[in-house]
Amino acid sequence: MTTIYLAGPEVFLPDAMPIMAEKRRLARQFGFEPTGPGSDENQTPVKRTAAEIYARNDDAMRRAEICLANITPFRGVSADPGTVYEIGFMIALGKAVFAYSNHPDDYGLRVRSIWYAGLEIDETSGRPRGPDGIAIENHGMADNLMIDGGIEATGGKVFRAATLPADPARDLTVYFKALQTIAGIPASFTPPSSPR
Amino acid sequence: MTTIYLAGPEVFLPDAMPIMAEKRRLARQFGFEPTGPGSDENQTPVKRTAAEIYARNDDAMRRAEICLANITPFRGVSADPGTVYEIGFMIALGKAVFAYSNHPDDYGLRVRSIWYAGLEIDETSGRPRGPDGIAIENHGMADNLMIDGGIEATGGKVFRAATLPADPARDLTVYFKALQTIAGIPASFTPPSSPR
């Protein structure tokens, strides 16, 4: 069975356990074996050190064949940084990496609405800049170009919501669509086998 | 000569070119050959597509032996997401990865001061949570535990400022100290050779 690493910030939600259980249930429904952060949290919770958590996730990423990452903005403009780390890590390992976002706006629009809310953007220099002079990426991507760029360069796909759902931290509509697409991709896409 | 990939959000600054030139000059002073995003921008600027920028950075990361990443908070609580992607990517490739932050506060403190500014934090459940119920990592690390955890698990180090400098986006004091330490590390630390 193909193992899928479910990256995302759901571990931080107050209702992490039922949300993550539902994500795993859906992954199994599409024929995947789910793994990822907090994937054993339906058993008795265990207090782990940061190093232990890192080691468990590192190992799970190496064992998985596919990554499906939730890059919905987390406390700001961009995806949860732990999730971004995992996307870069799994792309470097040659895994098949996919992502989804429940936010319909691209990165450049979110920098304007979330970070520079209401402030004037300088569009005169050929590159949009905030009032602090810092350039705003405008490649139309879901997040920083390394994230979308890495996923697209290796044959993956970033799935984006058409409209913002009522509960972006928990909505599973785009997640479901992503699983469906990944499960249906042609056999020629089979990711390289895990290095261990 | 050991090639060092200088990851960081300086490419977005209005004065990106002189800042990045100074970072490269300092790296050379310590015996490193610098590479990384925008590293040819002292020549005539070339307009590249997102895919071209990604491919150039991907290639530079594979060719480099060491990464030194600027994880000073960028437009919010955490490091620039492109930089975080690069840290995960280079750790997965087996490179020696180091990071520095010009912000002295750990991640948990910054979530409180930058994101939940002034709002009450719930400390009653054994895990601090914002008023939205979302848990706040409190491992005392510079950023999300995957970042510090990955760097520390592979023998690297996160260098942090003792106090916030006047210009956190440009200050090079901690960067200089990081270069000095990396240049002085024993030969037994020599990172594995690049896969191509």
Summary?
Chains A, B: InterPro entries: 2'-dNMP_N-hydrolase (IPR051239), Nucleoside_deoxyribTrfase (IPR007710). 2 copies of one chain form a homodimer. The first copy, chain A, has 196 residues and is α/β, with parallel strands linked by helices.
Largest interface (CB within 8 Å) is between: A-B, 50 and 50 residues
**Main β sheet profile of chain A:** 5 strands, parallel
Task: Determine the CATH topology of the largest domain in chain A.
Answer: Rossmann fold
Bin the strand percentage of chain A: 5-15%
- Counted up, domains of chain A total 2
What's the architecture of the largest domain in chain A, going by CATH? 3-Layer(aba) Sandwich
Mean pLDDT of chain A: 91
User: What structural class is derived from the secondary structure elements of chain A?
Assistant: alpha/beta
Helix content of chain A: 25-40%
Q: Which stretches of chain A are low in confidence, meaning pLDDT under 50 for 5 or more residues running? A: 192-196
Large-scale geometry of chain A? globular
Rg of chain A is 17 Å
If strands are numbered along the chain, what order do they take across the biggest sheet of chain A? 2-1-3-4-5
Helix-strand sequence of chain A: EHEHEHEHHEH
Give the CATH class of the largest domain in chain A: Alpha Beta
Number of strands of chain A: 5
